């Protein structure tokens, strides 16, 4: 798969566009906010009994990457590292391999027809080659999600998706059926990577791309990161309990695990431990403020509360009820604490550039689909859903372009935004009973 995926965005020059964050003092980089070495930091935090094995396996996999002579096999290995969620150990090696492959194929590649020539007939329509297999269709389907606006990739998604759905109806091999089903539901590029790393670990076992060192490293890393996240949840829960808002606001949501999921997904690198904990705090207060607006605040109180936040002035809250004062001061103090941390680490005070934005809050979260159908009464619900899906697809194309060409932003900042979009899929993936089963599964894993 890695070869096809790479070709589908081969027009991107890794030398020019995949820059890391600047090291200038006034530039904000999450990487600079963590002082310890990533692997050793995790080991020290979790008191690992297998630290030597962990470090030795990292060394073996790194040597395997550096000594590989077959570019295709190297790309397959990189694809496996990414799906297993352990590519962060080998950023430099991966960058060097991709740059080498990019240069070997001649740099910028704008003709998408060459990439998909094996799937397209003389009329430009996709058709199945007699020699094509399920693996090729899975590769084509996955690659289509890297679309930055090419019509041929839209056709590729429709063609490969329909083929795979038809294959599921006739497949008698359970493993193949399960893999097709998983790929259709969770395309790699738009899914939360660490949510599915265990699935890929089980699938890779015994495969050609998996050796002992890679398997042991992936298994250890999976357990270590999960343990690290559990410790972070404990820290967030202590903060939330000490804050006392749960006792003061009986009507409000009390879900620190749910709040932690957002930064956990947006910033998966273990080096961002402190960032995840700190970012969870304002997210928690956003949920609480939402409950205040929806449940119990009077109009006059909410207007004054909003003005106090917009002006960032504590003197304006004297006439507010106690629970609003506590919520406001919590938000005020947490924001200033984070700003102080940023200033201390990077020499820049973000308080002065906090943007004030007015949001239309009428106590009702409207459905775009509902409004769209009211404006277009002749359309069916199915047509409305197709319209919404097209809008989401177009939004992903724009996001892909920004992430593949991340300047002027750092690579890790662009990746965090991409991960945030992936999390939105999780938060709106309701089943027929309006349950978020995938989200619940991830939350439950942090409780154990």
Automatic annotation (TrEMBL):
InterPro entries in UniProt: Isoprenoid_synthase_dom_sf, Terpene_synth_N, Terpene_synth_N_sf, Terpene_synthase-like, Terpene_synthase_metal-bd, Terpenoid_cyclase/PrenylTrfase
Alphabetical keyword list: Lyase, Magnesium, Metal-binding
Pfam family, any one: Terpene_synth
Span of domain Terpene synthase metal-binding: 241-349
Claim: Ligase is one of the keywords in the record: no
GO molecular function, one term: magnesium ion binding
Terpene synthase N-terminal domain span: 50-106, 114-184
GO biological process, one term: terpenoid biosynthetic process
Domain of life: Eukaryota
Cofactor: Mg(2+)
Matches recorded under PANTHER family: OS04G0344100 PROTEIN-RELATED, S-(+)-LINALOOL SYNTHASE, CHLOROPLASTIC
Name under which the protein is recorded: Terpene synthase 4
Species this protein is from: Acorus gramineus
